[in-house]
User: What shape does this take?
Amino acid sequence: MIPVKQTTLRRLASPLAFAITMAFASAASAQAPASAPPPTAEAATVKKQLEQKFPGVTLGTITKSPYFGLYEVLFDDQLIYTDAKVSYVIVGSVYDPNSKKNLTEAALRQINRVPFESLPLDLAFKRVKGNGERKLAIFSDADCPFCAKLEDELKTVDNVTIYTFLFPIDQLHPDSARKSRIIWCAPDKAKAWDEFFAKGALPANNGDCDNPVAQTNALGRKLKVVATPTLVFADGSIVPGALPVQRLELQMKESEAEVAKLTAAKK
Assistant: This one.
């Protein structure tokens, strides 16, 4: 474990912390809980001590993990682990050595889920492939090379309705916002988007129509989107990156199964 110091937790992250988390995950060999239990008095004490030792930090959920009595804490935008007295802090990912699953990443995705139906889909353009029965939302940047890679992967994905939120990242691609507005102003937005990625061709307009680019940027920031592409699946899971088609299909299958399970539980 790593002693707590008065510094940011990002500075504590190291190969040692990663190795330690791998070790205790192997020893524990336990899955993260499916849902967080109600907060306890001890959890409240953990929160108070973290606030004292890391003034100004934003703390989220604090739950008892299945790993040696440690607490799992949402610390700013990452998960950390600490003992009840906050004598030590572990920064890194916990893995299940049998399934090779990143339990920390899975827990963070569970915490950050957003109800798909709450997304303002009128701010996105829609593409329907096949019967369109599956759902996928994407935050994408017109000039992002990884977005182009994802678009290539999506060519072989069928039976899905894709909602694309324009999310130009000005710091990386200063011309992307202009291109996004031009694509939005096209009579057929989906066709314009596909043609841009296929041929680099933009529609013949000035991009001066009413467009949602400012709103989709604000939405992305609210959902803590920091990179493109970022995908939102039917169960609300938010996953960054240009997933290869095999993982994309698996993630959609798992998310649809989760939606079915949650729907059945409500009946």
Remarks:
- The chain has two domains: 2-111, 116-266.
